[in-house]
Design brief:
alpha+beta; Metal Transport, Frataxin, Chain A; 2 helices; six-stranded antiparallel β-sheet
Length: about 110
Amino acid sequence: MTESEFLQYSDDLFDYIEQMLERYGWPLDYETSGNVLTIESENKEQIIVNRHVATQELWIAARSGGYHFAQQGMHWRSARDGSEFFAILNQVLTAACGEEVFIPAFN
């Protein structure tokens, strides 16, 4: 993937996550600024979704820790344990807002 393709993909990914948060109305606010999508729960817990252009990785930072994801085929997998990006995102969002959050994978 070229740098411009990665930037376009991550822009589209951030837009998709925002659309899903709006559509399902979970108690989460969000804001995108540059390479960072910040999602905040009603109790002020933040989840940061970040794109790291130099390594072409997606990062999630949450109370439970930080996760780095690299593209493997059609999926983004954690360098730590091979978990898929949306599995971790759903897990940390659920923990933050106290309601089950399920955002389907984005291709």
